[in-house]
Amino acid sequence: QVRLQESGPGLVKPSQTLSLTCTVSGGSITTNYYYWSWIRQPLGKGLEWIGHITSVASTYYSPSLKSRISISRDTSKNQFTLQLRSATPEDTAVYYCARTPRPTGGYDYWGQGTQVTISS
C-alpha cells in the first residue's frame, strides 16, 4: 500500500517561500512508470496541477507557476519537496501530493492534503 503524507507550515507570510515535503511509504520515488505530483485546490475552486518530478528527477511545471516553483527530491528519505517563492494570498489553498502512473496519467494515490494560508 502506497502512502503519501504532506508536511510543512500552515501559515506563510506574503513574499516568503512556501515549502512543503511529501513523504512516501510503500513504494520508491525512483521506481519507473510513476511521476510524483503536487496539486492544489483553493477554497471553492477546482484542482490545479502545480508540477511533478519523475523517477529520474526530471521536473515539469505549470506554465503559470514555473517562474516561482521548484520541485526536488531526497531519495535517501523517499521524499519530494515543493518550494513556491514570493507567495501571495492567491496561493492560499489545500496542497496535495500524489502519484501519477505512466502512461495512463491521473492520480492513483493521494496524500490527505495540507492547508496553507498566505497571510501576514
What features would you describe in this structure?
It contains no helices and eleven strands. The chain has strands at about 5, 10, 20-25, 35-40, 50-55, 60, 70-75, 80-85, 95-100, 110, 115-120. Strands 2, 4, 5, 6, 9, 10 and 11 form a seven-stranded mixed β-sheet that branches. A hairpin with a 7-residue loop joins β9 and β10 (about 110). The chain is globular, with a radius of gyration of 13 Å. The termini are far apart.
* Count of separate DSSP helical elements: 0
Secondary-structure-based class equals mainly beta
Shape, principal axes of CA atoms = globular
What fraction of the residues are assigned to beta strands by DSSP? over 45%
* Mean pLDDT across residues: 96
Tell me the radius of gyration.
Answer: 13 Å
Provide a brief overview of the structure:
This protein has 120 residues and is mainly β. The protein has strands at 3-7, 11-12, 18-25, 34-41, 48-54, 59-61, 69-74, 79-84, 93-101, 109-110, 114-118. The strands form two sheets. Strands 2, 4, 5, 6, 9, 10 and 11 form a seven-stranded mixed β-sheet that branches. It has a four-stranded antiparallel β-sheet with strand order 1-3-8-7, with no helix packed on it.
